From TrEMBL:
Origin: domain of life: Bacteria
The keyword Cell inner membrane appears for this protein: no
Protein name, per record: YceI family protein
Keywords attached to this entry: Signal
Coiled coil: none
Matching SUPFAM superfamilies: YceI-like
Residues spanning the signal sequence: 1-18
Length: 186
């Protein structure tokens, strides 16, 4: 009986320690987006201030993500447009300073691919969103001796569903997201 209890305790410890916390490396990560302009071109931009944490195994299977993006950090390489995007016409950054995403489901779709579904909150509106993910690789960083994972997440959202801006012939409704991440195990 003691042997069984010891074995169960050991296995439980292994299961608990199998998951660890990972944090995004801001210098090697980017949250980018693209949106149609006049139905003939695409305006691209990114958010420069964000924090992404994940709880995951060393292989990044069954990862749980928490994302916090500061809306004031929007950057489309055009200061006038960025100020307009920060205004009440779009993100209303003083009232809604963050965009958040909390994953609720991880579905493995291939050897290094997955679908990540979660609650996305923009402009005070929360909706389900699904991102397609790829684990580009996992290595031990020679300098820090920490595990690092490279990931790419892509998806599309409808800005109008979140109350960002109004219907317009000059601005598309669909926003394409491309997120490049380098995550370091803590």
């Amino acid at each position: 009986m003691k042997k069984v209890i010891f074995t169960l305790a050991f296995l439980t410890t292994l299961m608990v320690t199998a998951q660890s916390t990972w944090k995004s490396d801001a210098a090697h990560s980017k949250i980018g987006f693209g949106i149609s302009h006049l139905m003939i071109s695409t305006v691209e931009g990114h958010f420069s201030d964000f924090d992404i944490t994940a709880t995951a195994t060393d292989t990044f299977e069954d990862a749980e993500f928490m994302v916090d993006i500061k809306t004031t950090s929007i950057d489309t390489d055009n200061e006038r447009r960025d100020d307009h995007l920060r205004s009440a016409d779009f993100f209303e950054v003083e009232k809604y300073p963050s965009i958040t995403f909390k994953s609720t489901d991880y579905e493995k779709t291939g050897d290094n691919t997955f679908k990540l579904t979660g609650d996305l909150t923009i402009h005070g509106v929360t909706k389900k969103a699904t991102l397609d993910g790829t684990v580009n690789g996992i290595i031990t960083d020679q300098r820090s001796q920490k595990l690092k994972a490279g990931l790419k997440l892509t998806g599309t959202i409808d800005r109008l569903e979140f109350g960002v801006g109004e219907e317009s012939a000059s601005i598309g409704n669909e926003v394409k997201l491309t997120i490049h991440l380098e995550m370091a195990q803590q």
